[in-house]
């Protein structure tokens, strides 16, 4: 399918969604929101896709929501249209999603990256929540996901001053899983995505769900959910296959 604001490619079991509005540093428009969400939902329902990568350009993952599109909106208008409310659908995907971030990930761009399961950053990446400089605050989860990722001190710093955090600071703070040289970002991310996609998809879904549960519940409830999911995986052929393959010193062939 042809999209206007994104490119979608698929190879083996990995799909790559590239945000593509180069003239606006990939600013997130409503049109782009629709397309990304549609693409993710399509890929998520394809059992042949084991991992999704979302990336941007070298200069910008995304420089935020499209300020020119937002500028003249009114309160009743955005309330009624539930402006940018569909991004939430991305977080309902069960397939693991990696954000590969080069350059600016600001405002909604940072928030989109944080909706993904893991962020891999080029060493040129810049993260920030500059909404306050526009007279607003984060609206796609920044105040919540950033705080959960990096804690109150850094989240307050970023949300109140609008300053940018570089890749190293983002990694030290726990926002980013890995930092790689910018020139190698896509190669390195594809290796990680390939590794994830080579696992049993059933098991990968269970792992993603278990980690995500920890953000929603108490330790006791989370541990119970994890234990039940662990037990449930013993009903899958992939558990039998994975453990047999280990004992037989061969590679597992997942039923998935
Ligand atoms: C619309 C944008 C844009 C944005 C950049 N552009 N960011 N257009 N919305 N968020 C456009 C510029 O207007 C310009 O268009 C072109 O992209 C290149 O940008 P420059 O500013 O010329 O580039 P540079 O000088 O390198 O500066 C890069 C930058 C700066 C530091 C990233 O562009 C910037 O500050 N952008 C805005 C960042 C921001 O405030 N984001 C938060 C948005 S609010 P022309 O036509 O002039 O060439 C938000 C809320 C989310 O995200 C919640 C929603 C519910």
Automatic annotation (TrEMBL):
UniProt superkingdom: Bacteria
Annotated keywords: Fatty acid metabolism, Lipid metabolism, Lyase
Gene3D superfamilies for this protein: 2-enoyl-CoA Hydratase, Chain A, domain 1, Lyase 2-enoyl-coa Hydratase, Chain A, domain 2
CDD domains: crotonase-like
Catalytic activity line of the entry: a (3S)-3-hydroxyacyl-CoA = a (2E)-enoyl-CoA + H2O; a 4-saturated-(3S)-3-hydroxyacyl-CoA = a (3E)-enoyl-CoA + H2O
Pfam families for this protein: ECH_1 (PF00378)
NCBIfam families recorded: PRK05862.1
Family statement: Belongs to the enoyl-CoA hydratase/isomerase family.
Function summary: Could possibly oxidize fatty acids using specific components.
Protein name stated in the entry: Enoyl-CoA hydratase
């Amino acid at each position: 399918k042809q999209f206007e604001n994104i490119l979608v490619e698929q190879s083996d079991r990995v799909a790559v969604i590239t945000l593509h509005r180069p003239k606006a540093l990939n600013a997130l428009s409503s049109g782009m929101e629709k397309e990304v969400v549609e693409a993710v939902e399509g890929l998520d329902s394809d059992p042949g896709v084991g991992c999704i990568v979302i990336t941007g350009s070298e200069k910008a993952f995304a420089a935020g929501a499209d300020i020119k599109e937002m500028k003249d909106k009114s309160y009743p208008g955005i309330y009624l249209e539930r402006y940018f409310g569909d991004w939430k659908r991305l977080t309902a995907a069960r397939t693991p999603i990696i954000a590969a971030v080069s350059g600016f990930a600001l405002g909604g761009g940072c928030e989109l990256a944080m909706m993904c399961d893991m962020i891999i950053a080029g060493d040129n990446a810049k993260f920030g929540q500059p909404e306050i400089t526009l007279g607003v605050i984060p609206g796609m989860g920044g105040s919540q996901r950033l705080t959960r990722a990096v804690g109150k001190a850094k989240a307050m710093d970023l949300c109140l001053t609008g300053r940018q955090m570089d890749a190293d600071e983002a990694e030290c703070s726990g926002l980013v899983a890995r930092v790689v040289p910018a020139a190698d970002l896509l190669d390195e991310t594809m290796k990680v995505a390939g590794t994830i996609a080579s696992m049993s998809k059933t098991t990968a879904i269970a792992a993603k769900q278990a980690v995500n549960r920890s953000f929603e519940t108490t330790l006791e409830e989370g541990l119970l959910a994890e234990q039940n999911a662990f037990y449930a995986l013993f009903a899958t052929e992939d558990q039998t296959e994975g453990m047999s393959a280990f004992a037989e010193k061969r590679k597992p062939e997942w039923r998935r």
